[in-house]
Write a structure and sequence with these properties.
single chain; alpha/beta; 7 strands
Length: about 260
């Protein structure tokens, strides 16, 4: 299927690794011109070069922290008028809410709620004027099924979800959609770090914990980031203009609810 987005401009944040990288790769394969950001130059440039080699796409890079005002200004200076915006940021650390002071909460909100909102604010009107826009927030399966030790993520990402639910109904008449993709366990560096921490806490080997977590998923495996990237590309497609305000769970069936 031709997704009808060749020649469009996409801005993907936190795209040097993991799910952000997968989204950038899938969009590039559709002929999209990319601007990708991350905090660390080395991995960012390596990812950009690999995307260029594999897809032939034009890829611009910017090392910036999207959670800061300075980082967002620099990012928008590099790509002021994207047709596609993929908001991504690393999740806040796990822990006990009793240990989190105001500064910890503000850091989580800055990265996982306020930054995406400010990026949307800066780009959505241009999309409306051009009569095309696709905004995708990478959040978490915790939005549908809160994870006890991820209270910071539960709170920040749910706040973003609530804000976007209202805005998505205002922009869709202009062919500007706003959706979220909610990942379950995917084979990424972040999952590896989580499994290592769980192994230490349980007094088990990483291999044991990994197999237990893999087997507990109905699919019997972790997700491939490429699957996530391809879902993102479709949500950004010309064919997806009637999908907005949705939270699309991709977790191998791990969420046990009917709705």
């Amino acid at each position: 299927m031709d997704l009808g987005i060749a020649g469009k401009k996409a801005l993907v944040t936190a795209a040097s690794k993991g799910l952000g990288r997968a989204c950038a790769m899938s969009l590039a394969a559709e002929g999209v011109e990319l601007t990708i950001t991350a905090r660390t130059v080395g991995p960012l440039e390596e990812t950009a070069e690999e995307i260029r080699k594999l897809t032939g796409a034009t890829v611009h890079t910017l090392a910036a922290d999207i959670a800061t005002e300075e980082g967002r200004e620099a990012t928008l200076g590099a790509c002021p008028n994207p047709d596609i915006l993929v908001n991504n940021a690393g999740g806040p650390p796990p822990g006990d809410f009793r240990d989190w002071d105001r500064d910890v909460w503000i850091a989580a909100l800055d990265a996982n709620m306020l930054s995406p909102i400010f990026m949307i604010k800066a780009t959505v009107d241009g999309m409306i004027e051009r009569k095309f826009g696709r905004i995708v927030n990478i959040t978490s399966g915790a939005v549908k099924a809160p994870i006890e030790v991820l209270g910071l993520s539960n709170g920040a990402r749910t706040g973003l979800t609530g804000f976007c639910a209202g805005l998505a109904r205002k922009t869709v008449r202009h062919n500007v959609t706003l959706n979220a993709i909610l990942p379950g366990p995917f084979d990424t560096d972040r999952l590896s770090a989580t499994l290592e921490g769980a192994a230490r806490a349980a007094g088990k080997s990483v291999a044991e914990i990994t197999e237990e977590r893999r087997a507990s998923n109905p699919a019997g495996r972790f997700g491939d980031p490429a699957e996530f990237g391809d879902l993102c590309a479709f949500i950004c497609s010309a064919q997806a203009g009637y999908i907005t305000g949705q939270n699309l769970l991709i977790d191998g069936g791990g969420y046990p609810g009917t709705f």
